[in-house]
UniProtKB/TrEMBL annotation:
Substrate binds at residues 83, 89, 121, 155. This is Malate dehydrogenase. GO terms for molecular function: L-malate dehydrogenase (NAD+) activity. Gene3D superfamilies: Lactate dehydrogenase/glycoside hydrolase, family 4, C-terminal, NAD(P)-binding Rossmann-like Domain. Residues 149-312 form the Lactate/malate dehydrogenase C-terminal domain. It comes from the Eukaryota. Keywords: NAD, Oxidoreductase, Tricarboxylic acid cycle. It catalyses: (S)-malate + NAD(+) = oxaloacetate + NADH + H(+).
Length: 316
């Protein structure tokens, strides 16, 4: 049984704690490294009492960053500040970009073969930061760095299942583009099972999916953004990465990765996962006219978001 070392950066946070718990419960995880600037020793002892074989270790503070990441098979990053009401994901960039840069520099040094799954927002801009940092260190492998967009898929599946009154586990709708507002493009035309919603329903559901992050921010009224559904989604994505690493066939998940679509050098698409991360980018595929319009709206925003990330690492 091949099992893995997983490091969670930001492990003490609102996402990090439930995500750490889900990883402690995952039979493919043999070692869990918890890294944060605060509280990891307590979180680790607490989790270590759970009756699963996975070993939990705590690392705290910048001085222990390298040790925490060393030789990880998978690094999941939720380190950073969350969005408060009135803030956009882009407002987060100036704080979170530095955190991602430090983590990517350390990963390039001590875990160059790790698969890196980044949750920290704004995902559209911080994935380019991580990739540019890895390029500078000569350690960039586009098959290994992912922006986690799984929550967009999870939400889409849930909302479709509600409308169809079926079990969400039976629904699968690919979501492409980016991970904020108008860059999120659900592809109802490729829903499994097939859906025959009216145009009005498709428009309303697309809007709800694109604004679902804000729906949570507003409901939490100052207490942060999505944490539990995000932790669930990241755990689902990490599990897919591990299934790929174990050689399971036909593991397909969408994520935001280095790509080239309509001038956007990063784009979320369905990916076939394998032993080195991405085995094959399955691409955007066929779109209907409504979806083509959504993509046309998304691309210039993405190009701008990507430029923000690239320019941060390579100032003009
Ligand atoms: N290194 C490691 N951990 C850090 C660092 C750093 N440089 N900076 C902050 N952290 C930790 C914080 O100490 C905190 O425990 O990251 C954690 C973030 O947790 P929360 O503030 O509760 O935020 P959370 O809701 O988990 O969201 C984290 O994910 O979805 C995104 O937009 C969200 O960017 C935000 C991130």
């Amino acid at each position: 049984e091949e099992c893995f070392k997983v490091t969670i950066a930001g492990a003490s946070g609102g996402i990090g704690q439930p995500l750490s718990m889900l990883m402690k419960m995952n039979p493919f995880v043999k070692e869990l490294s918890l890294f944060d600037l605060q509280h990891t020793p307590g979180v680790a002892v607490d989790l270590s009492h759970i009756e699963t074989p996975c070993k939990v270790k705590a690392f705290m503070g910048a001085d222990q960053r390298r040790e925490a990441l060393k030789d990880a098979n998978i690094i999941i990053v939720s380190a950073g500040v969350p969005r408060k009401p009135g803030m956009t994901r882009d407002d987060l960039f100036n704080v979170n970009a530095y955190i991602i840069k430090d983590l990517a520099e350390a990963a390039a040094e001590v875990a160059p073969n790790a698969l890196i799954a980044i949750i920290t927002n704004p995902v559209n801009s911080v994935i380019p930061v991580a990739c540019e940092v890895m390029k500078k260190a000569n350690k960039f492998d586009p098959r290994r760095i992912f922006g986690v967009t799984t929550l967009d898929i999870v939400r889409t599946n849930t909302f479709v299942a509600e409308a169809l009154k079926i079990d969400p586990k039976e629904v699968n709708v690919p979501v492409i583009g980016g991970h904020a507002g108008d860059t999120i493009v659900p592809l109802f035309s490729r829903s499994k099972p097939h859906v025959s919603f009216s145009d009005e329903q498709i428009i309303a559901m697309t809007k709800r999916i694109q604004n679902a992050g804000t729906e949570v921010v507003e409901a939490k009224a100052g207490a942060g953004s999505a944490t539990l559904s995000m932790a669930y989604s990241a755990a689902r994505f990490a599990n897919a990465l591990m299934r790929g690493l174990r050689g399971e066939q036909n593991v397909i998940e969408c994520a935001y990765v280095a790509s080239d679509y309509g001038g956007a050098s990063y784009f979320a698409t369905p990916l076939l996962l394998g032993k080195d991360g991405i085995k094959e980018n399955l691409g955007v595929g066929e779109l209907n006219d409504f979806e083509k319009k959504l993509v046309e709206t998304a691309i210039p925003i993405l190009i701008e978001n990507i430029k923000t990330g690239v320019d941060f690492v390579n100032p003009k």
